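New to this. Look over this protein:
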Amino acid sequence: MKYLYFFVIFCALIYTAESGNILAIFQFPYFSHQRFHQTVLQILLDEGHTVTVFSTHPHDYKDHPNVTQYVFEDSIKIHKKYTDMLMYRKKKLHYSQILIQHEARAYFEAAEHELSHPELQKMITNTSAYQFDLVIAECVVCTSFLFAEVYDCPVAIVSAIDAPYMIHNMMGNDINPFKYAESLFLPYIHGEMTILQMVDSLMFQLFYEFIFNCVHIYNNVRMNYNHFSHLGLSTAKSPNHRISLLMTNTNQAFGHVRATMPHTIQIGYTHVEEPKEITDLELKDFLDKSSNGVIIKALGSTVNTKSLGIENVKKFLKVFSKTNMSVLWKLDEVEEGLEIPPNVKIVSWLPLSDALAHPNVKLLIFHGGIFTAYEAIDRGVPMITFPLAYDQFTNARLMAHKGIAMEMDLNSFEDSELTSAIQEMTKPKYAANVREMRSLAYDQPINNRDLIVWHVNNAIKHKLYYARDFGNFSYFGTPLKQCFVYFAAFVLLIIYLVRRKFKKVDEKLKKL
C-alpha cells in the first residue's frame, strides 16, 4: 500500500509542476469572442492551471475550483454607444472612419472603465499580494499587457479572429501588404490580390502606422499614466517584448494563409462541441417534420429587428414564402401586424450549433461570423452570407472562394437574387464541398487541445519571451520602418516619372 501512496504523491507532484497561475483579461464585448476565450481557459483549467479571469461576459466553468471570475459590468453598454455594424454597412464607412470615429473611442473608453475595476485596482496597487506566471490577453487593447510587466511574466495573446498585422509582426511572422490584406476590414484573398487591392492594403498599413497608431499610443500612454505610473513603469511603455505566444481562431483549410513562426498557432474549431439533443420540444418537432429541408437564418447576437429595418424583414419573408422549404429565423421581436408565412418559424433564441446538426437543415443564412461558419462547416451545412462589418467580409469572400457559400449585400439584394441563391446553394455539390473542408480542417497531426496545453506550459516553464528574441523578423524591421521604405520607393518613382516627362519635353523642344 505504501508504494501506491508514493506513486499517487509522485504523480501529483509531476502534475502540479506543469501548472501555473494565470491572469486572463478579455475586454472585447462580444459573446462569441468570450465563448472562444472560455473554451481556451477551460482547457487550461482541466490541465491543472489556476486562472483569474476578467471578462465582459460571465463564463460558465461549471464551478471549477481553480477559477476566480470577475465581470466588467458596463463594457457592453459603452461599446454599444459607439459601434453599430449595420450602421457601418448602410453608411458605407471607410475603415479609417470606423477605426478613428467609432472603434478607438469604444475600445479605450471601455478599457478605462475596466482598469478601474476594484479587483484589478488591488492587483495594481498591492502587487506583492499576487503572483502570476502568465498573462493571457486579447490583442485589441494592449494596456492589459502591462500586467506582465508588473508581475514579470510572459504574455500569451488569444485572438478570436485572425490577429491584426502589427501583432503578427511582433511575433516575427511575415507581413507584406502586397501579399496579404493587412486589414481585417479588407476582404481580399491572400496571394491573389489585384494591383488596386494591393494599393488598398498598403494604404491601410500606412494609415495605421502614421495616423491610427498615434491615437492608439496616445490613449495607451494616458491610461498607463493614470493606472501604472506609481509603479515606476514608463508611461509610454507597452511590453510587447514579453509576448510568448499567439493563438488565433484560424484554420489553414479555411484559407487564412500566412508564413508564421512556430509560436503562432492556429486553433480554429476549438470552440465547436459535439451537438447536444434539442430540449425545446416545439423546436425539435418543427425540425423533425420539415421533410423538404430547413433554412436557418441568424444574423448574429448584435443585430436586432430595429437595426435590420422593417423593409429588409419584409423582403426576407417574401422570399421565404415562395420556397417549399421550412425556415427557422432567429429574430429578437416581430412587429405587430407583420404577416408570417406558414413555413416560417421565428424564435427569439436558438441553440444554433445544435440545430445545425439536425439532418433536415440544408442551408444557413447568416452574417459571416467565423464562429458560426466553423459550426456550419462542422455540421456539413452550406451557407449564404450577408456580411456586416469587421472580418465578416473576409470570411464571406473566403467561403465563396472555397465553394461552400455565396456572398450577398444586405443593402442592395433583390428578391430574385436571394431566391436564386437558395436554389443554387441547396444543390448537393455544395454540401459535399463543406464536408471536404471539414475533413481537411480536422485532419491534423496534433489536436488543438494538446497544441494549446503544450505551448502554454512551455511559455510558463521557460518564461519564454518569443517576441523579444524573434520579433520584427522581416526585410525592413518594424512596420514603421517598412512604411518609410515604401514611402521612399514611392517618392523615387515619382521623381523618375517626372524626370522622364521633362526629358521627353526637352527632346521635343530640341526638335523644334
Q: What stands out?
A: The longest strand covers residues 50-55. Confidence is low (pLDDT under 50) at residues 3-17, 471-476.
